[in-house]
Amino acid sequence: MRKEDCFYLGKIVKKHSFKGEVVIKLDTDEPELYKNMESVFVDIGNNLIPFFIIKSSLSRDTMLRVKFQDVSSEEDADSILGSGIYLPLNLLPKLTGNKFYYHEVIGFTVIDKNYGTVGSIVDINDKAAQPLFEIENDGKTIFIPLIDDFINTVDRANKTVEVEVPEGLIELYLG
Question: Which of 95, 100, 144, 160 could pair covalently with 133 via S-S, beta carbons 3.0-4.6 A apart?
Fold first, then answer.
């Protein structure tokens, strides 16, 4: 399985017992959707390896305690500690309206209500406190904060995102 065909679900953050159980910190607003999984892909050395789940239980909001098949000791658990957990993209629940997954809008055209066509989304920068659309415009990069009040419409059929940002924000990057 290739990483491009998967989405990041979370990270193995700690061991839970001496029998190889681990705790996964889920990176989701709906952790209950993932409490009865049969398997996940674990990122080991930049390869996604399938791991089968014997049992799991959700504790404290986004913490999923998991017992994997073939992980039966502290040493086994140590070998996967800190690893990312991934699932195939086709397992993502479908979003509608103005809600979207970051990977879903890459390549969409951004149109500002006042400015017009801004450019094409090349990435979502989520390293800062506020996630940002990273938009390519004729060799220049424009950043627009992902704020609900700025996003008017997400049109999946036409691959566009209509925004209305404060006056001067776009021109700031083009000047």
Answer: 144
- pLDDT for 128 beyond 80: no
> pLDDT by residue (tens digit) across 81-116?
999 999 998 888 888 788 888 888 999 999 999 999
Helix, strand, coil % over all residues of the chain, rounded to 5: 15, 45, 35
CATH architecture of 102-174: Roll (2.30)
Nearest partner of 49 among 26, 22, 74, 79, judged by Cα = 79
CATH class of 3-91: mainly beta
Give 71-80's long-range contacts (Cβ < 8 A, gap of 24+). 71/20, 71/22, 72/19, 72/20, 73/18, 73/19, 73/20, 74/15, 74/18, 74/20, 76/20, 77/15, 77/20, 77/21, 77/22, 78/15, 79/44, 80/12, 80/22, 80/42, 80/44, 80/51
Query: From CA 151, how far away is CA 149, in angstroms rounded?
Result: 6
**How far is it, in rounded angstroms, from Cα 1 to Cα 53?**
18
Q: What is the pTM of this model?
A: 0.68
Structural domain boundaries of the chain?
A: 3-91, 102-174
User: Would the pLDDT of 164 be above 80?
Assistant: yes
